[in-house]
Amino acid sequence: MRFERIFVADGACNYPLASAILKKLPEAEKVPVTDLQGLAHLDYKEAKRSLVLMVKKGRAVKEFSPACPSMRAERKSVQTYQAPAWKEFYIFFAQGCPYDCHYCYLQDYSQSPAPIIFVNTSEILRQIEETIVEFREERPYFHAGELADALVFDPLTDFAESLIDLFNHYPQATLELRTKSTEVAHLLSVPHKQNIIPSWTFSPQEVVRLYERGTPSLKLRIKAARRSQEAGYLIGLRLDPIIHIPGWQKAYEEMIEQILSELVLERIESVVLGCFRYTKALEHRVRERFPLDGLLLDEFVLSEDGKYRYFKPLRLQMYRDIIGLIRKAAPGIPISLCMETPEVQRSLAIELKVA
């Protein structure tokens, strides 16, 4: 992993992780900064070659809003769309990543277009452990990968290893490490329990080419997932966002066949599907950065949650086709929808039910 410039925020150098990262990147220019406001001027091309080291202030573990269901719909009542019986949290250990996916919602979230690593990892781990202990009776589920790729920084931080070691002591809590990366070396050598779920965002290679700039190919992601399975992990398949490209049916069929033929089906924990959606603010950013992009050429409708989505009939068709392909090869794998409307959840209740 190469970065040309490292912005070091006030106080970051007081932490061992900052010193370790600076040693691993000796050729990068070091630039002291007081806050993120001075980085807003960076263009994205420059920003993706830069890195910010700073101290995370405030809460590093945050609960998902009950009104904003995330990944685990297969454990909910699809017919009634009830809230889950457990607590879900996301871990704020970093923000952004070196990849530059056109659809990434973080483009409109962060004050800095450059990726950020929070260096006070002991405090972050302490907050995670306190949250596990407080909610241990509710089977807490933790997402690493909502605000940053869960594994791409691991060669610099070793943070995944620390997370796995922590969760090994709390089998009633689950950790999902969501990634597009191939940085699995630390996973392969670390003792772990079945409550650690590395999960990969998979897209057809044409989607990777068009909209996932700088990311590993579909083939390399599958290889990394397979290596993790061989090391004893259950893994998650995340087909999110599903994007309506020309020839989408063939593209997704070929991708699913490739994934399911190369992975061990019995070691797939779950599949999560989600169609592309965006906010008005993200739309402005995408049109500004990628004016010739085909990502927004479809017709979209505004949903009650303030996000724009493909028309419901198209979403249902895409979901049904993809679910059918998965069920044909692996009828017992749990499949759920991510960030979908209750109406669509109910419409697909039969298809989502495990055979």
Tell me the number of structural domains: 1
Average pLDDT over all residues: 93
Sequence of strands across the biggest β-sheet? 4-5-9-10-11-13-14-18
Q: Give the CA-CA distance, first to last residue.
A: 43 Å
In the CATH hierarchy, the architecture is: Alpha-Beta Horseshoe
Strand fraction band?
Answer: 15-25%
The largest β sheet comes out as: 8 strands, mixed
> Structural class, from helix and strand content?
alpha/beta
Helix proportion range = 25-40%
Low-confidence runs? 67-83
CATH topology: pyruvate-formate lyase- activating enzyme
Tell me how many strands there are: 18
Assign an overall shape: globular
CATH class: Alpha Beta
The radius of gyration computed from the alpha-carbon positions, rounded to a whole number of angstroms, is: 20 Å
Count up the helices: 13
What do these coordinates show?
By secondary structure, the protein is an alpha/beta fold. The protein has a single domain, classed as pyruvate-formate lyase- activating enzyme. Helices cover 33% and strands 21% of the residues. The chain has 13 helices and 18 strands. The strands form four sheets. The protein has an eight-stranded mixed sheet with strand order 4-5-9-10-11-13-14-18. It is globular and about 55 Å long.
Write the layout of secondary structure elements.
Layout: E1 5-9, H1 16-24, E2 29-33, H2 44-47, E3 50-54, E4 61-63, E5 88-91, E6 94-95, E7 100-101, E8 116-118, H3 121-134, E9 141-144, H4 154-157, H5 159-167, E10 174-179, H6 185-189, E11 196-201, H7 205-211, E12 212-213, H8 218-230, E13 235-242, H9 248-262, E14 268-275, E15 277-278, H10 280-289, E16 300-302, E17 308-310, H11 312-329, E18 335-337, H12 342-347, H13 349-352
